[in-house]
Amino acid sequence: MTVGYAEDKQNLLRRLRRVEGQVRGIQRMLEEDRYCVDVLIQLAAVRAALDKVGLALIEDHTRGCVRNALVNNQGDEAIDELMDVLAQFLK
Amino acid sequence: MTVGYAEDKQNLLRRLRRVEGQVRGIQRMLEEDRYCVDVLIQLAAVRAALDKVGLALIEDHTRGCVRNALVNNQGDEAIDELMDVLAQFLK
Amino acid sequence: MTVGYAEDKQNLLRRLRRVEGQVRGIQRMLEEDRYCVDVLIQLAAVRAALDKVGLALIEDHTRGCVRNALVNNQGDEAIDELMDVLAQFLK
Amino acid sequence: MTVGYAEDKQNLLRRLRRVEGQVRGIQRMLEEDRYCVDVLIQLAAVRAALDKVGLALIEDHTRGCVRNALVNNQGDEAIDELMDVLAQFLK
Q1: Domain extents for chain C?
Q2: Predicted-complex ipTM score
Q3: Which fold has domain B8-90?
Q4: Which chain D residues touch B66 with a CB distance below 8 Å?
Q5: What is the CATH number of domain A7-90?
Q6: Which residues of D have a CB under 8 Å from any CB of B?
Q7: Neighbour count for residue C74 (Cβ, 10 Å)
Q8: CA distance to A71, A77, B53, C5, C59, per residue, from A81 (Å)
Q9: Of B20, B33, B40, which is closest to A23 when you measure between CB atoms?
Q10: Which residues on chain A are in Cβ contact (under 8 Å) with C63?
Q11: Rounded to a whole number, what is the distance in Å from the CA of D35 to chain C's nearest CA?
């Protein structure tokens, strides 16, 4: 069985490589003793970028796995699992 | 003038290197077609780790730069700036 | 057609009445000049309570409306709509 | 001693009364069996309004109590307390 994000995989990987680069950029800022607030603004940007990856993946998962489970009458567990994950993102 | 996080720098860098490794780990999970929900759980963990770095840096900044500004009667701008940053993290 | 939260309605209403009471309680704290931090702790509690209502309603909606839409081959719009709402909660 | 939000009190109370009205409005929507997504959009709006009240109060507290504590060399505890509260809002 294929994963829900199969068609979106390259897009997600590209975004995550960008996030990885941003995290390295923040390390560099600290090493160069850049002003705290400038570092914090970058941290908030990475956080927002990660949330977008999360949301894209939740969408892929819902369109793929949850939909399949629902159609095959196994929707209850799929939705339980989805809700657990959403609760973690809403924390 | 030193930055607010001067004494905490190695700690922050260590945490960010860990976050960077986690982001690479998530890319690997996608490449291995791991189950969406497992990937999402890791994403939520990275997000929480980033928030902790952000909070630690806000604390350093407040104890260092904001305190200095307040003592030197330049607190108003420092607090304006701090609030702008908090607003970004609360979004 | 019934709403997705039909069976959960009394539970949601009870929680919202409790949130309403908490919001009134915070107004009282302000009128009594209670310490800022105590007020903030209550505000954070109300926020967490609201998030729980939101999550419960998202669950009802997914188990009800989204499931129905998926089974009736109208899942695409239902998931678009769900994602828009999740994006607002993740902000 | 006055609270940090003394001058902002009427503004905060007005906002909280508005939040209270919004929470009652959501109860009414549920009683009228309004569509889940419309209810969720209102919930997200209330959450954003509460965050703004929280941020305004954090600002008042920082400009008032934290500043006073810092000037009187009792800043350490004041900042510890502030960070605990921020951590709750960032959850």
Answers
A1: 8-90
A2: 0.93
A3: Methane Monooxygenase Hydroxylase; Chain G, domain 1 (1.20.58)
A4: 62
A5: 1.20.58.1000
A6: 51, 54-55, 58-59, 62-63, 66-67, 70-71, 75-76, 79, 82-83, 86-87, 89-90
A7: 12
A8: 16, 6, 28, 19, 11
A9: B20
A10: 75-76, 79
A11: 6
CB atoms within 10 A of CB B73: 8
Q: Which chain A residues contact residue C66 at CB under 8 A? A: 62
**Distance from the D44 Cα atom to the nearest Cα atom in chain B, whole angstroms:** 12
**Per residue in A21-56, pLDDT tens?**
999 999 999 999 999 999 999 999 999 999 999 999
- Single pTM value for the model: 0.91
**Do A55 and C90 lie within an 8 Å CB cutoff?**
yes
CB D61 within 8 A of CB C37: yes
CA distance A15 to A21: 10
Provide the 3-class DSSP secondary structure of residue D15: helix
Long-range contacts of B25-33 (CB under 8 A, 24+ apart): B26/A16, B27/A13, B27/A16, B27/A17, B27/A20, B30/A5, B30/A9, B30/A12, B30/A13, B30/A16, B31/A9, B31/A13, B33/A2, B33/A3, B33/A6
Residue C74 has a pLDDT of: 86
Q: Measure in Å the smallest separation between the Cα of D34 and chain C Cα atoms.
A: 7
